[in-house]
Amino acid sequence: MQAKIAAAIQDHPLLAACTPQEHARLLADAELREYPAGGEIFRAGELAEHYYWILDGEAELASNEPAADERPRALGPGDGLGAEALADAPAGQARYLAGARAVTGVSALRIARGALLELAARNPRMKSAALLGLAARLGGLRPPASARSATKAPAPLPLKQRIGWVSTLVLPPLAWLAASRLGLPQHSAVYIGLFTMTALMWLFSLVDEYIPPIIAVVAMLFIDLVPAQVALHGFYSRTFLLLLGVYALSAVLVSSGLAYRAMLWVLARLPDGPFWHRTAMTAFGFVLSIVMPSSNARLALLLPLYREMDGSLRAPAQSREATALMIATFTGATLFSPLLLTAKSSNLAAFTMLPVQVRQEFQGFWWLAAAGVVAAGLLAFHLLAMRFLYRAETDRPLPAERIATQIALLGPLRPQEWAAAAAFLVFLLGAAMPQWHQSQPAWLAGFVLASLLALGLFDKQGFQSRIDWPLIFFLLALDGFTDAIDYLGLREAMIGAIGHHLDWIGGELGWFILLALAVTMLLRLALPLTAGMILATTLLLPIGMEQGIHPWLVVFLTSLFSDIWFMPHQNSSFQQALSAGLRSRCDESLFFRYAWWLNPVRVLLAYASIPYWQWLGLY
Amino acid sequence: MKNRLATVFASVFVLLLLALLVAFNHQKPRVLILHSFSESGLWETAVNTGIQRELARNREPIAVRWRYMALSPHMNAKQWAAAAQRSRATIDSWRPDVLVAIGEEAQDYVGRHYAGRAGPRLVYAMGEDPASFGYAGAPNVTGVHEALPLAQIVELLRHLDRASPRGRPSPQDRASPQDRPSLRIRAVGIDDPTGHAERQQVQDFDWGPHRLLGVELVPDFQAWQEAVRTAGQDADVLLVLSFGGLPKAPGDPGEADGLLVAGWTEHESRPLAIGVRESFVAGGGALAVVPSPYGLGEQAARKALATLAAIRHGEPPPAPEDSLDFQIALRPGRLAARGVELPAIYVQAARATQSLYDTPLDGKPPRTR
Questions:
Q1: Taking CA atoms, what residue in A is nearest to B27?
Q2: Distance between CA atoms of residues A137 and B328, nearest Å
Q3: Alpha helix (H) residue ranges in B95-179
Q4: What pLDDT was estimated at residue B254?
Q5: Cβ separation of A488 and B59 shorter than 8 Å?
Q6: Which of A61-75, A156-170, A403-417, B137-151 has the lowest mean pLDDT?
Q7: Which of A283, A490, A548, B147 lies at 20 to 30 Å from B265 by C-alpha?
Q8: Does B60 touch chain A if contact means CB atoms closer than 8 Å?
Q9: Residue with more model confidence, B204 or A17
Q10: DSSP states along A227-294
Q11: What residue segments make up the domains of chain B, in order of their start?
């Protein structure tokens, strides 16, 4: 009997997407029922506690008060009954819309509503399919053929990944052996092996970016390579709380609706011209950069607004105008990453590598102040390009009336928005002027997090789903992984190995900028942005300090140069823009030309900053 | 991970990584550090700090485990034997390459069991004579003998401005240090193996230009009081040896309160009392020059690492040595009451090792030895 029920569950098209574990669990809530000819299966209006699937025999559906021309609808093997059980009604309120009666002897699989709802929570498509079938049946329509999704043969593993896996299996042990042969202490040799493993996994994108450093940290702990205080240092560093606070704040700004309202408000008040439309998108990106340490998250928030604006302006596809709006949106999300400590997660990770006095100095808005020349230069370049290079052929105004109506629809500021605005201002002012709270921005971020939790603005579900836990684990594991370099004395070994080869720098910032550019770009050819920047900082920081270069300059330069990109795979935000329809609306070559022109501008601005840094006493 | 080949690669990777890590852990030489008492003891904590300091400098893979016999004076002989049995069982099952046994009890109940055997190599760290545990001539044994810092005490005596009892100036106070007549020294300790070992060291030491009048080992606190009073008749300096575990009276085997013993000795001793354990100053004494537990830990760990290197090279273990480091414990208030002034460097040395007791009987508990 149980085998027959199990077979019926596995054959049921509605349950085809379930896992074997879900099938097995369902067995406890399923049974086979036999109904004699003429027997009632359920009545209309009765509580819909079960769903039925006819295995054998015929049944018919009939409403309580049939219309004059209504005829009962006949059902046979393979038909479902009682899909009302899947409806999202409060307990005790889901009822059958029509009754069901066996025409011949019927054998049916009966599944309890509770079990089905649990399944439907994980597989929402199952509920839609059942309820659409129910609507079609009650409306007397022929339901669409519910063809099972054909099982697609998995694509063959790309050659790059095959090479990557083989390299990851072979090269790390070889690196370990080679380091041992070169006379490095065993601990250092093992670290070199783990480092090679991590770099290869990143290089060939074998797993998600955040996984390799976690593997490396766990391996280091497993063999006592470094003490837990070193390997897990990031998890009790201030960065942890800073990241949590910033993520919570950005989540509340979005979920409260304040971010959307602010964007509409700005659009309604700015002059209605193409330059100002683009400037608005860029400005939104800047404001979001203060509290969102991920350009992907910022772009995800800006893209819906871009679509609204693009749809309203109706610029021809592939035109300079349409392309410029996407460039402005993309640049808004990405341009300010190196300019603010909290605009890029890797900035926060690299920040922990700085000496304590430098951290204290650069934890607030001093970061932006020190990056002033680069910030002003990048912004000027972008705004001039938007003003003069991408002129609109015709004036296309935004629908002012619609924007006004949208604002009116939002109504007055709700308490959640007030609270989100207050939290944002507290964080902003606290980061800009730490003297008023006499604490550190990380602890202020922690206070903001605690307040949002206490006020119920950031609930348990938000805490679980709106914080980018993989990224946080990635950064904190990376922190431990790079700290181990110091603990194992590899930094000194590296400096020793470099010896006098970098004497040509001679403490000159100009030459060091060249070195930072070369190292960062080389690493970024192979590694994703965060890993590339962290690794570049790890390598360059000791060299820079040895050369008398201010440590913040080293971190800033790697942050600035890690944003340089030439090929699509180097920039995940670009992939995001592509999936948002960049190709269908924009001239890709125009877009790339702009992105490529920004690269030399970054380098020139780094050199242009030298007198300013001298004036600040950083060089 | 839908692609089967990717799953295979990832599985091979995970299994290979696990195999390599486990193999790495298995090939690491093992060191077991065995303490006589529990891990919460201040002396044990200080020794462990020294061990960890030395191990942190090590860059070769080793597996280190700590084990505490957790012996206590309140346990009976059967319980002590059971604790020893459990420790030996741990050693026999984990099979360390080097056993570092710290404290006399760890030698007596565990260490001596492994002397002269093929494995493990034994590194002792304790104050008694290694020969009394059967270590003499054992090819697998080396270690650090905790030596009383007697030379440093003599050096200290040279610096004492007013070493006379109760602050009364003596004729030699006005003489230059070179011209000073020798001081008369007596020592008092407990009549147990530790006391015997300390007496041996005191008697074997060349006290010149001073004179050792005698070392009295006593069975209980009553006899201790008598010995301290007697020393007042002819000695200028009273050396206070270890007194942990001193019974209260002839008919009362209960342990006399260490604070009481130290405080009474300091107040009733006419000669300047100098301890050789920090517990003397912690209990109210004015001055102690004590073997450094941090230094002992560092030396023991260094010896263990050297023993591992010797095993790798197929050599015998390195030669045993005496402990090198010492520290100063001071109670400036009591010194001032005695009219004794020490060079500032002594005060700073005591401060650096958190052994400066500058409040009247602050709550700092004495170390266990």
A1: A223
A2: 94
A3: 104-106, 112-114, 150-159
A4: 86
A5: yes
A6: A61-75
A7: B147
A8: yes
A9: B204
A10: -HHHHTGGGGSHHHHHHHHHHHHHHHHHHTTHHHHHHHHHHHHS-SSHHHHHHHHHHHHHHHHHH---
A11: 27-146+293-322, 150-291+325-352
**Please, what is the average pLDDT of chain A?**
87
pLDDT of residue A145: 57
Taking CA–CA distances from B7, the nearest residue in chain A reads A157
Helix axes A372-384, A588-608, angle to 10 degrees: 150
- Which class for B250: exposed (0-12), middle (13-18), buried (19 or more C-beta within 10 A)? exposed
| Cβ within 8 Å of residue B128, ≥6 positions away | B104, B107, B193, B194, B196, B197
pLDDT at position A98 over 60: yes
Contacts of B60 in chain A (CB under 8 A): 185-187
A374 contacts: CB under 8 Å, gap ≥ 6 = A338, A339, A560, A602, A605, A606, A608, A609
Residue A181, token pair as written in the block:
């042969």
- Mean pLDDT computed over A196-201: 92
Instruction: Summarize pLDDT for B247-268 with one digit per residue, the tens.
Output: 998 888 888 999 999 999 999 9
The SS3 call for residue A518 is helix
Measure Cα distances from A543 to A361, A375, A492, A560 in Å: 21, 26, 10, 18
Phi-psi region of B246 (alpha: psi -120 to 50; beta: other; left: phi over 0): beta
Given a contact cutoff of 8 angstroms between Cβ atoms, the answer to whether B162 and B169 are in contact is yes
Q: What's the gap in Å between the CA of B302 and the closest CA on chain A? A: 17
Whether A522 shows a pLDDT value over 80: the answer reads: yes
Shortest distance between the Cα of B274 and any Cα of chain A, in A, equals: 40
Residue whose tokens read 């040896």: B241
Q: Give the full edge-to-edge strand order of the sheet including A30-35.
A: A30-35, A106-112, A50-56, A80-81
* Most confident among A458-467, B81-90, B168-177 (mean pLDDT): B81-90
Predicted local confidence at residue A141, as pLDDT: 63
Domain B150-291+325-352 has CATH 3.40.50.2300: yes
Distance between first and last Cα of chain B = 61
Fold of B27-146+293-322: Rossmann fold (3.40.50)
C-beta atoms of B12 and A185 within 8 A: no
Please, is B277 exposed, middle or buried when counting C-beta atoms within 10 Å of its C-beta (0-12, 13-18, 19+)? buried
**Chain B residue numbers touching A173 (CB-CB < 8 A):** 20
Domains B27-146+293-322 and B150-291+325-352 share a fold: yes
Predicted local distance difference test score (pLDDT) of residue B200: 93
**Residue A227 to residues A487, B33, B176, B302, Cα–Cα distance (Å):** 9, 18, 54, 19
Q: CA-to-CA distance for A303 and A326, rounded, in angstroms? A: 9
Q: Which chain A residue has its CA at the smallest distance from B9's CA?
A: A165
CA A425 – CA A410 distance, rounded (Å): 22
